[in-house]
Task: inverse folding
């Protein structure tokens, strides 16, 4: 055993500047809440949290297939696209990282097939792993070992959002389709290739999990470096499965690709892995174009949704509502605007701002590409808070549907809990704008504050760092102004 | 970062947030006019989609549906209406009073609060029903003006404060400006 920090509050002020993390302090949750550690170390942990969710998911699919075709009378629409979405983006991601991935039912059958077990661990050898695994166990193609598929998949899916957000059967096709793809890929590729490289929900969760106020990390990374030769978190052991997300905790510095499945906690021979509470926006390094574009796409989609779903413009709703209206020309314009804004428009503005930042800093030795990628982190807190600001009206306006649908989940006229006939009534809708203002301004503040932390990893001189930040900072302020105009103006 | 710099930053944000509403307030011509609107509802929008009025104006709103039964729920004004197609007039109720709908030809009220208030369909009318809405803008739109000023304030104050904090650190370093 190494010298684990004795205190549960681990001050890491001396963390290297380029570690990609801002850590004024962190609190070891396994030490402060011993039950949490005990629960996470249970061999049945994953099964206990996924299986109930799987049952609910199957019921939602059933409701989508056989329940009411009216969206706001069917539980799959109300609970998935309003209730789940609100919880995911407002609470789960910012406060608990990828906690949704822990309970997500999509990989259930695929992982069961790969492991040949729901709970127990199989020792053995598969490739470089210390577990016996079934299936072809192919390596995921190197050219696709990034999140570009998730970027494009999510953009494509969201282009048709007016369909699956409102029609139960389309929701069944989308969710059921993802479930089938996840299962099929597990037959061919190692571990959770679907979650890592394909799942459209996983992509933005990974990016926004960088802001999360919890992290799974090594208690003392030095123990991993000096004492651990077996890397059981990555390769597995007789106590735990190899990391399904291909992560080595000893070097893990970001939340992006950790699904919090807790297998590493079980397999670590040094008991050196824990879950920590930390400040908002703890990870600050975006590491490639694929992640930068994910930030651009998410921001563009937040804007598009704000215009289409929360705006008053009937023409745009008609364009988006292709299945009912059939205006293909309008839909083409709508889709074209989304794809252009997300893939070209916002990135072009960002590239220009990055280049101007380089000029203002007066140091030409740092490539514009590096400034562009690193500063795109500013759009992570900004985008997340814009999404939360978008999602608040959804729940405050449509919350009554949640209460009525729980009594009549299929829209068949049931009244299980006596709430089926509760009339629709928004919850304090006139105050929503004040929540949105606070959220958006909070997002801008964190974009600038953490942007400065990023700039210090580029420039040693602090005045250079501030000067380089001005153009991208102005772009962030303009973006926030645009959201304010849409929501409040 | 010292407490003084944090206070400076907060003061900048507050001042920036206050300037636009104060300017708008001093230049506001005031309301009190009678304003008439005829709002037509159809799947999944209202025409006009936006109504812009001044605080104190007296609004006379008539409603009609061009296709199916729609609702008209106006945020912050205790107004909920049911609009049936092909029928002159509409049904109106005030949700806080909990009474049944009554038949009317128009709804009349004076706008007393500034800002944006959405009118939404309150009767399931089709697939995009939850997103069918229009906007009543009551000027001067103080919340928007203050938030816009606050945005500029946060931009200026954050950059200024981190610049001053960096300068202070640098000055405090032995050797001053030498990197």
Result:
């Amino acid at each position: 055993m190494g010298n684990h920090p004795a205190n549960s509050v681990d001050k890491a002020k001396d963390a290297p500047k380029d570690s990609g993390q801002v850590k004024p302090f962190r609190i070891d949750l396994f030490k402060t809440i011993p039950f949490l550690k005990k629960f996470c170390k249970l061999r049945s942990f994953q099964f206990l949290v996924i299986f109930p969710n799987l049952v609910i998911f199957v019921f939602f699919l059933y409701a989508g297939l056989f329940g009411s075709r009216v969206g706001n009378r069917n539980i799959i629409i109300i609970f998935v696209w309003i209730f789940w979405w609100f919880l995911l983006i407002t609470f789960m991601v910012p406060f608990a990282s990828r906690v949704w991935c822990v309970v997500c039912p999509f990989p259930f059958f695929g992982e069961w097939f790969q492991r040949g077990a729901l709970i127990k661990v199989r020792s053995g050898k598969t490739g470089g792993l210390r577990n016996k695994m079934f299936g072809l166990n192919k390596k995921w193609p190197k050219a696709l070992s990034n999140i570009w598929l998730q970027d494009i998949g999510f953009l494509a899916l969201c282009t048709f959002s007016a369909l699956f957000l409102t029609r139960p059967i389309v929701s069944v096709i989308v969710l059921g389709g993802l479930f089938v793809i996840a299962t099929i890929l597990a037959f061919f590729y190692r571990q959770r290739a679907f979650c890592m490289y394909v799942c459209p929900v996983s992509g933005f969760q990974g990016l926004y999990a960088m802001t999360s106020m919890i992290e799974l990390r090594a208690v003392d990374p030095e123990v991993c470096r000096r004492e651990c030769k077996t890397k059981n978190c990555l390769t597995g052991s007789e106590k735990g499965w190899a990391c399904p997300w291909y992560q080595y905790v000893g070097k893990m510095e970001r939340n992006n690709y950790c699904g919090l499945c807790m297998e590493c906690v079980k397999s670590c021979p040094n008991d050196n892995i824990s879950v920590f509470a930390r400040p908002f926006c703890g990870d600050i390094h975006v590491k490639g174009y694929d992640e930068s574009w994910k930030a651009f796409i998410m921001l563009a989609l937040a804007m598009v949704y704000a215009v289409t779903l929360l705006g008053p413009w009937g023409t745009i709703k008609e364009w988006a509502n292709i299945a009912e209206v059939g205006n293909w020309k309008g839909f083409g314009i709508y889709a074209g605007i989304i794809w252009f804004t997300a893939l070209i428009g916002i990135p072009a503005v960002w590239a220009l701002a990055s280049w101007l930042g380089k000029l203002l800093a007066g140091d030409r030795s740092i490539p514009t590409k590096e400034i562009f990628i690193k500063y795109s982190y500013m759009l992570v807190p900004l985008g997340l808070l814009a999404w939360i600001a978008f999602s608040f009206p959804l729940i405050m306006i449509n919350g009554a549907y949640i209460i009525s649908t729980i009594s009549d989940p299929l829209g068949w006229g049931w009244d299980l809990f006596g709430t089926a006939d509760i009339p629709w009534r928004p919850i304090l809708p006139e105050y929503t704008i004040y929540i949105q203002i606070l959220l958006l301004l909070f997002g801008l503040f964190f974009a600038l504050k953490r942007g400065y932390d990023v700039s210090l990893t580029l420039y040693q001189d602090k005045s250079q760092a501030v000067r380089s930040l001005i153009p991208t900072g102005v772009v962030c302020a303009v973006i926030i102004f645009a959201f304010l105009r849409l929501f409040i103006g | 970062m010292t407490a003084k710099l944090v206070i400076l930053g907060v003061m900048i944000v507050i001042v920036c947030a206050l300037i636009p509403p104060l300017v708008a307030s001093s230049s506001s011509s005031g309301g009190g006019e009678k304003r008439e609107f005829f709002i037509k509802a159809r799947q999944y929008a209202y025409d006009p989609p936006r109504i812009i009025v001044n605080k104190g104006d007296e609004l006379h709103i008539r409603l009609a549906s061009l296709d199916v039964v729609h609702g008209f729920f106006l945020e912050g004004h205790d107004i909920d209406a049911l609009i049936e197609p092909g029928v002159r007039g509409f049904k109106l109720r005030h949700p806080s009073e909990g009474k049944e709908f009554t038949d009317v030809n128009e709804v009349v009220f004076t706008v007393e609060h500034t800002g944006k208030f959405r009118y939404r369909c309150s009767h399931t009318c089709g697939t995009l029903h939850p997103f069918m809405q229009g906007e009543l803008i009551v000027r001067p739109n103080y919340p928007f003006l203050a938030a816009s000023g606050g945005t500029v304030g946060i931009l200026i104050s954050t950059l200024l404060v981190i610049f001053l904090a960096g300068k202070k650190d640098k000055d405090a370093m032995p050797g001053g400006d030498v990197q």
Summary: Chain A touches chain B through 54 residues (CB under 8 Å). Strands of chain A lie at 27-28, 123-126, 129-131, 214-218, 273-277. Chain A has a mean pLDDT of 93.
